[in-house]
Structure prediction request, 374 residues.
Amino acid sequence: MPAGACTATCSAPLGVGGLGRHLQEIVDALARRGQPTVCLDGASPAASETPPRSPRRRWRPSGGELLAALPVPFSPGVRTRVFMSEFDAHAARRLPARDHLIAFNGQALGQFRAARRLGYASVSLVSANSHLRRVLRQHATAHRRYPLEGSWAAHLLRRNLAEYEQADLLYAGSAYTVESFLEQGFPAEKLCLFPFTPDPRYSPAGALASDTFEIVYIGSLSVAKGVPLLIDAFRRVSHGDLRLTLVGGWGSRGMRRFVEAACAGDRRISVRPGDPLAHLRSASLCVHPTYEDGFGYAPAEALACGVPVIVTEDTGMKDLIGHAGAGLVLPTGDQDALTEAIAAAYRGEIFSTAARADARHASSHADAGRAGSH
Prediction:
């Protein structure tokens, strides 16, 4: 981390959701080093209940919030671009006098320019996903198979490329993300690996007796996250005591229709938005079939709860799966492989009774790695 007084910014509320958790880990790392930090984040009641460790200046979006809430006629990509641009402009106008700026990709361009004018010594970027050219490539693969919605990434490519060019340092949460930037010719000396880990509240609970085999997916219900692929793979495994719970919400008409039709056609599938912790603690398996995820908090949280996971080659947290029984890494987009893995897990042929202990060990290893790297 840069030495000196810092400003850390993100449109997500501190500690809330994937981006908010990223921000929390950045702020905590600065606090451990005793560095004075101002945190400018999104506003939410949940975020404001706990006094922050650093001074905070919360953002309440106006027009962008309304636009982001509308399902039509605006695409998810347009909504995301407007939302991020509005936060960027807001934060740029309110940057305090500091030495260093740490901002998130897709929402930092105006802040970078403002920080330079204010005499900041450095501007750094936290990349929540892999290089956006890889994101676009993976999204294109997903949407060719399931043309249900557009990709948000196409609307942010130019902005991200400009941010990459201007950043003095880029923080990446996984080796997968680092590799994607090196593939695009990004200077290795400007890359810094900053491993992410789940919130401490994700921890194992006592085994719960159940007559069903509970599979859980956590995250946005989108094509790029592999949700249609998971639903189709799950429906090919016909056992009546299998259950699939989707913990999340959709952002497009296409996904809403697909998921609602799947639930109506197969009563074993259900959608349960809200806190994922209770679902994880009763789960037999967590599946994260994404086409691209720079890290992947959801499967990491499952491991921390002692739940075995199935992830893809394009998930940054796959490096946490280093012990037989704790998880399985599959080729991205391979429906046959995913179907076979779900069936094998149901039959007990993979993820033995030692899986939960192995998963806890993998989570502890990640915690140790984070403490050493920060």
